[in-house]
Structure formats: C-alpha cells, structure tokens
C-alpha cells in the first residue's frame, strides 16, 4: 500500500486553485437536477417523514433526492456534517474519513472509506472528494464531487467510487421552531460490475440509513456549536 502524506496532497497545485469553483459548479448542477421535471417518487413517507425521489440523468444513471424535516437548525446540522473526521462515530456505514487538505474554511479534500456492514449491497468503496459549503440567505449548501490526484491513486483492496456532483440543502422551516427542511441529492457512480438494479436499490436505502443515524446524533444532545453559541444572538 502506497503511503501518501497530507503534504503530498497540499503541494498539488490543483487543490488551492480550483476547488471552490468546482464545488460551486457542482452545487449549480444539483440545483438543476432538483427541478420538478421528470421526477419519480420512489417511496411513501416513512415514520420519520422521509420521502425519496429519483431522476434519470444522461447515460441512464439515476440521481436520488431525499427530503425530510430534522429537529435542528441549519447551523447545528451543518456543524455536525462538516466535522467529517468524526462522522464514523455516529454513522456505522463509514469506516473513516480523513481530511487531506483544507483549502480555506469552506473547502476541503477528503478521503473516505466505507465500512463493511451487513446488508451493504454495494460493498466496500473508497472516495476521493472535494467538499464545499456555501450560504445563500437562510439556506446552507454542502456540495461534493469526485476529484483525481496523481499523488493519491486508488488504494489497494478498494474500488474507488465517484460522487458527481452531490449536494445537501438545509433550510429553516418557516414556522420558526428551530427545525430544518433537509434535501439530499445523491449522484454517485459506484464503479465495479454491479447491476443497475442493485445500485438503484442500495443508494436510496443508504440515504435513509444515513438520515436515521443523523437523527440519532442530533437527539444525543447539544452540539459543540450549540454550547458555544448559547445566549449569543
């Protein structure tokens, strides 16, 4: 297994020069994907209020959209999701995530390894991704897209999947109850030789499982963000 250091990645000129632009472009593409045209509803609302839709993209690949309501503010949800290196602590589908490069407070390059869990139809994968967040009025957007670095090739023993692009949109509810509308657009090429029917079954299931884990994390109590901002307007 090749030993790749954070310094190797940090020295690659692509990282600082184009990451924010690529991620903002990805968020814009996700906004187009999330439009109402040619969208199929895949599931009835479950006990948590989750609903999943799908849309066929060029190349016959599907993007999946999960919509639900979470009992937390956009800032609280964003704070948890942006601490990617802690995500494996509350999401058993992730083995680990390593931040390889922080390109400012809003952009980072990460390497993620999925866990080998029971019922995982896709199997273990790794991802090399650019992650970026932005704010537009009261909404928070978290975008991601696959990237390629010569200094960080696919790792031995893993199939490298690709996000392309994916986006989470967090918007406060109008009733001012501290809850948020949560939309997750998942657009992924899992690679390998899996039948599309298996992939199209596994990805929306993964969305529901992830959101269930996120709810549990939110229910555990105040986040570090909440503790820091108690009493601060």
From TrEMBL:
<dbReference type="InterPro" id="IPR002913">
    <property type="entry name" value="START_lipid-bd_dom"/>
</dbReference>
<dbReference type="InterPro" id="IPR000799">
    <property type="entry name" value="StAR-like"/>
</dbReference>
<protein>
    <recommendedName>
        <fullName>START domain-containing protein 1</fullName>
    </recommendedName>
</protein>
<keyword id="KW-0446">Lipid-binding</keyword>
<dbReference type="GO" id="GO:0006694">
    <property type="term" value="P:steroid biosynthetic process"/>
</dbReference>
<dbReference type="GO" id="GO:0050810">
    <property type="term" value="P:regulation of steroid biosynthetic process"/>
</dbReference>
<comment type="subunit">
    <text>May interact with TSPO.</text>
</comment>
<keyword id="KW-0445">Lipid transport</keyword>
<comment type="pathway">
    <text>Steroid metabolism; cholesterol metabolism.</text>
</comment>
<keyword id="KW-0755">Steroidogenesis</keyword>
<dbReference type="InterPro" id="IPR023393">
    <property type="entry name" value="START-like_dom_sf"/>
</dbReference>
<feature type="domain" description="START">
    <location>
        <begin position="64"/>
        <end position="223"/>
    </location>
</feature>
<keyword id="KW-0496">Mitochondrion</keyword>
<dbReference type="GO" id="GO:0015485">
    <property type="term" value="F:cholesterol binding"/>
</dbReference>
<dbReference type="GO" id="GO:0005739">
    <property type="term" value="C:mitochondrion"/>
</dbReference>
<dbReference type="GO" id="GO:0120020">
    <property type="term" value="F:cholesterol transfer activity"/>
</dbReference>
<keyword id="KW-0813">Transport</keyword>
<dbReference type="Pfam" id="PF01852">
    <property type="entry name" value="START"/>
</dbReference>
<dbReference type="InterPro" id="IPR029866">
    <property type="entry name" value="StAR"/>
</dbReference>
<dbReference type="GO" id="GO:0032367">
    <property type="term" value="P:intracellular cholesterol transport"/>
</dbReference>
């Amino acid at each position: 297994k090749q030993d790749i250091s954070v310094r190797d990645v940090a020295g690659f000129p692509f990282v600082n020069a184009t990451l924010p632009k690529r991620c903002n472009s990805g968020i814009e593409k996700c906004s187009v994907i999330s439009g109402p045209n040619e969208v199929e509803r895949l599931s009835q609302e479950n006990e948590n209020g989750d609903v999943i839709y799908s849309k066929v993209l060029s190349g016959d690949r599907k993007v999946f959209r999960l919509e639900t309501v979470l009992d937390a503010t956009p800032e609280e949800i964003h704070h948890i999701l942006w601490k990617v290196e802690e995500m494996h602590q509350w999401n058993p589908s992730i083995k680990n995530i390593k931040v390889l490069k922080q390109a400012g407070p809003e952009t980072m390059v990460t390497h993620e390894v999925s866990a080998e869990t029971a019922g995982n139809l896709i199997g273990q994968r790794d991802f090399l991704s650019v992650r970026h967040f932005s704010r537009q009025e009261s909404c928070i957007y978290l975008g991601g897209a696959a990237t390629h670095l010569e200094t960080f090739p696919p790792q031995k023993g893993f199939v490298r999947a690709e996000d392309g692009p994916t986006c989470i949109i967090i918007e406060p509810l109008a009733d001012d109850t501290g809850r948020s509308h949560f939309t997750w657009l998942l657009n992924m090429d899992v690679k390998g030789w899996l039948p599309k029917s298996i992939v199209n079954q596994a990805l929306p299931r993964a969305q529901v499982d992830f959101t269930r884990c996120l709810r549990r994390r939110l229910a555990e109590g105040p986040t570090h963000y909440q503790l820091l901002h108690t009493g601060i307007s």
